[in-house]
Task: structure prediction
Amino acid sequence: MSSRLLFTCAYDGTPYRGWQSQAGGGTVQDTIEAAAADILRQPLRIAAAGRTDAGVHAEAQCFHADVPDSCRMSPENWQAAMNAHLPATIRICGVRRVEPDFHARFSAAGKIYEYLICRAPVQSPFLYNRSWHVPHPFDVDALEAALKLYTGEHDFRRFAANRGNEPDDPPPDFYLRTIHSTDVQREGELLRLRFCGNGFMYRMVRMLTGTAHRVATGRMSPGELESMLTCPTGPKTRFCAPACGLYLHRVLY
Result:
């Protein structure tokens, strides 16, 4: 018998090879599962709301795990025990019990991602590996207008990188995603881009950001960007923002 727990965690993605467990280790998932195994004295497999790439950060990644009932720790004790066994670059922010049929990925209604751009001529060392440093001038209003073009339901295949496991003949809705809203917050020389949607594909937010920045520099017209949404069978965008500026901000349930 077991109980299902939902964990919320934050991490600095800089030292990790991404979220998902892989041969050779070095991922966030590997590190969390090792900490749980130390506590339980047996392996514990976890399932996350989604993957993040190497260098990408999270403020509120979610994962669930089925904990044997022989372990009588409360959710609060689980939080304290996990943080005691994890490196400082990963923190468990909350733990709660959920129903047995809850799934961190399949029960999610959507996600919110944020992307940070530092426009200062000299980037603060405290933003190194935490934001995309873009010291050359660009039109922030044009950037915001470009992001608005992404809202609604679109076939985003030209804004998604290939993982190598895509079907040869995908169904018509395979690349369809809905972006509910985009926003740009100006905090001095720091821009905080926010994307809220029902789902995001591999490197999609980074490619959306990089392409919108291309429009903001005047090297692509808004019409060219819009045509990539209305004509999804053309070549993929070549403009992908760096991983270091991306944050999984929240998973929506």
User: Anything to note?
Assistant: The CA atoms of residues 37 and 43 lie 5 Å apart. The chain has a mean pLDDT of 96. The first helix runs from residue 28 to 40. Helices lie at 28-40, 75-85, 140-148, 204-216, 222-230.
